[in-house]
Amino acid sequence: MDHDRTVAENKDASQVLDRWEELVNAGHVDEIMARFSDDAIWCNAEEGIPVIGREAIQDKTRAVFAWARARNSLLEIRQVEILGNWGYLTASFSATWSEPGGHQVEERSRYVLILKRESAGWRIWSFCFMPESKQGD
User: Fold this and answer.
1) Using alpha carbons only, what angle is made at residue 40 by residues 37 and 45, rounded to the nearest 5 degrees?
2) What is the Cα–Cα distance from 119 to 22, expressed in whole angstroms?
3) Which among 98, 111, 97 is positioned nearest to 17, based on CA atoms?
4) Residue 12 φ/ψ, nearest 5 degrees
5) Quick check: helix, strand or coil at residue 137?
6) pLDDT per residue as tens, the chain (137 positions)
7) Domains of the chain, with CATH numbers?
8) 31-56: string of b/e by CB count within 10 Å (b at 16+)?
9) pTM, 2 dp
10) How far is the CA of 24 from the CAs of 4, 7, 8, in angstroms?
11) CA angle 55, 57, 63 (to 5 degrees)
């Protein structure tokens, strides 16, 4: 595969996270979930139990946003690799979460996403979330 094609495919695949910070800050669950495949898997390294399927992940995401709101989110894509209709993406993420009672939590995490090319474009097939640090007031 030539260099220009590789760069174009990596950019195309990384668009699955376009506007991620804006969507997380606003709590737009439906727009976030549109980026996931129907058979997606969501893993949080702290919890250790995967959530399987877009509907189940959507329920989990709605519960998180009902409990706390993110602000000042920052996402930085670190690496994108594509091989045919599959790829992976790594990223770092940070946000301030406003929890009940006004409690503020600063969070830093790493993401590892396995991407799947579907007829509608790239979708998140596996979303692995690894918290690095949390600090609260």
Assistant:
1) 145
2) 25
3) 111
4) -60, -45
5) coil
6) 564 555 667 777 788 888 888 888 889 999 999 999 999 999 988 888 899 999 999 999 998 888 888 888 888 999 999 999 999 999 999 988 887 888 888 889 999 999 999 998 999 999 998 988 666 65
7) 3-136 (3.10.450.50)
8) ebbebbbeebbbbbeeeeeebeebee
9) 0.85
10) 32, 27, 26
11) 105
In order, the DSSP letters of 17-84 are: GTTHHHHHHHT-HHHHHTTEEEEEEEEETTT---EESHHHHHHHHHHHHHH-EEEEEEEEEEEEEEET
CB-based burial label for 103 (10 Å; 0-12, 13-18, 19+): exposed
The label of the residue with tokens 């790239």 reads 122
Phi-psi region of 72 (alpha: psi -120 to 50; beta: other; left: phi over 0): left
Tally of residues, the chain: 137
**Token digits of residue 26:** 């606003």
Tokens found for residue 21: 């910070």
Q: How far apart are CA 51 and CA 129, in angstroms?
A: 12
The dihedrals phi and psi of 134, each to the nearest 5 degrees, come to -140, 135
CA 116 vs. chain centroid, Å, equals 14
